[in-house]
Design goal:
mainly alpha
């Protein structure tokens, strides 16, 4: 996202929330298409309806966290500690990366 304008980045992330990869930038369009395909594929992977709902929530929180980071960077704003503690885990991708593991491995791995 560092290679596109602030407005393009915000629009791209908002469209991802709406499950659209459309972008004037071929690079963002390709990235968005790949992300949405991965999101949809992983959503189908889930063993239960509960897991699928959690995956959609994780995806939404991840995109919201990225929007939060972009806003802070755009406004040259230092987030409050409270905001940082809430949003940073979402935008870091930790939960986003862990969710597919849960679907594939848990509860067998515990």
């Amino acid at each position: 996202m560092d290679h596109v304008s602030e407005q393009e980045g915000f629009n791209f992330l908002r469209r991802l929330m709406l499950m659209s990869s459309h972008s004037e930038s071929p690079r963002l369009h390709a990235l968005g298409s790949a992300l949405l395909l991965t999101h949809e594929s992983l959503g189908k992977l889930g063993p239960t309806e509960q897991w699928k709902r959690e995956w959609i929530e994780t995806w939404t929180h991840y995109i919201a966290g990225l929007l939060w980071e972009m806003k802070n960077k755009s406004w040259s704003q230092m987030p409050s500690l409270e905001d940082y503690r809430f949003y940073r885990p979402l935008s870091s991708g930790a939960f986003f990366g862990y969710s597919p593991f849960k679907a594939i491995c848990l509860p067998q791995c515990l």
